[in-house]
Amino acid sequence: MGVLLLGLDGFRLINDTLGHAAGDQLLREVGERLQQLVHGSNTLARPGGDEFSIFVQDADLVQMEELAGQVLEALRRPFHVAGQEVYVSCSIGICFYPEDGRDNESLLRNAHVALHQAKEEGRNTYRLYRRQLNEDAGYRLALRSDLRQALDRGEFVLYLQPKVETSSGLVTSAEALLRWVHPQRGMISPVVFIPLLEETGLIEPVGEWVLEESCAIIRRLQEQGFRDFTVAANLSPRQFHQQDLAQRIGQFIGRHGLRAEEPELELEITESMLMRHEAQSMDLLRQLHEMGIRLAIDDFGTGYSSLSYLTRFPVDYLKIDRSFITQIGHSQEGETVVRAVISMARDLGLKVIAEGVETRIQLEFLRIIGCDLIQGYLFSPPVPEEELARMLERQARGERIGAGKADT
Fold this sequence. Notes:
Blueprint: E1 2-9, H1 11-18, H2 20-35, E2 43-48, E3 51-56, H3 61-74, E4 79-81, E5 84-86, E6 89-96, H4 104-120, E7 126-128, H5 132-150, E8 156-165, E9 171-182, E10 186-188, H6 190-200, H7 203-223, E11 230-234, H8 237-240, H9 245-255, E12 265-270, H10 271-275, H11 278-290, E13 294-300, E14 317-320, H12 322-325, H13 332-348, E15 351-355, H14 360-368, E16 373-375, H15 385-396
Parallel strand pairs: 6-7, 9-11, 11-12, 12-13, 13-14, 14-15, 15-16
Antiparallel strand pairs: 1-3, 1-6, 2-3, 4-5, 8-9, 8-16, 9-10
Helix pairs in contact: 1-2, 4-5, 5-6
């Protein structure tokens, strides 16, 4: 017998942004799609939360891998939830009776270990259980414990990924990205520890540290002469809906002596975060805009089918999701989407940032159609603050270090 256990990717975000009723509706619709894949004596169950299991009688490896592919494909189509078009993926763990367990409890436990491995390796995929994964699960458990002390011990650091003007090739801003330098294990991948922050509830205090440290970095760069350089920080859904968020950010700006009318701080938020409580989101964005904070819609194009909100919210930038950028040079449809987004943004008076730019073909296409800024490994990976400062010093001396120098 084969056991397939799937967990929805990012379900908590949907619950946080659209509400529990929408989350329950999504789970029902996911269950209906999965039921269509279950035949004969096979069984579909929901162990709890956002997880579903399928027990397949007399299954071999080929059958289970085919079923996993069918599940991933079934969830690829959008769901219509709370009046919105929502996309969701899943991660899958697979194990077998009796090799991986002789009762339901041990089978589900081991399938769960494989599921977590799938999530850690990028999500929207499946993994087979193997004994080594139990050791990996112990590794996660140890990290959860260490994570609770990491903030107090100063183990977090912000790396900065430059954003480059396509017209001039100049680095004018950067996105702050959280990194964890473990005292024994070294650099821990964000793919591993960010989900742990969310699971443990530590995402709020760590997110607050990210905001304040971003302000501190802006100040330090200004003291080195880079007075107009902008740093962008990401907001989590929980942060975005804190009642005193604008007040807290104002305190950080004041504490680090940034210009009150133009602090050079940018905040990146997702479409779904805006739409959970539209009226409250509007009030918050207006407060932040009046404080001189720039606002960017992150992962644009992956959330809502209706774009009318762009005319209502006071945003400054759209960040085109990397899934569209990777299609440049390969898909005419993908290129059409990117071209349409940039045209629409220009009509609305918004600037566009393309993230995940990795090839010169992508760069040239974006430059020709008028994309304002690019960000990606073609120009630079995320780097420590000191390395970014050296980059800006070379630029100030007249060295051309922007997009025009990038290699494929």
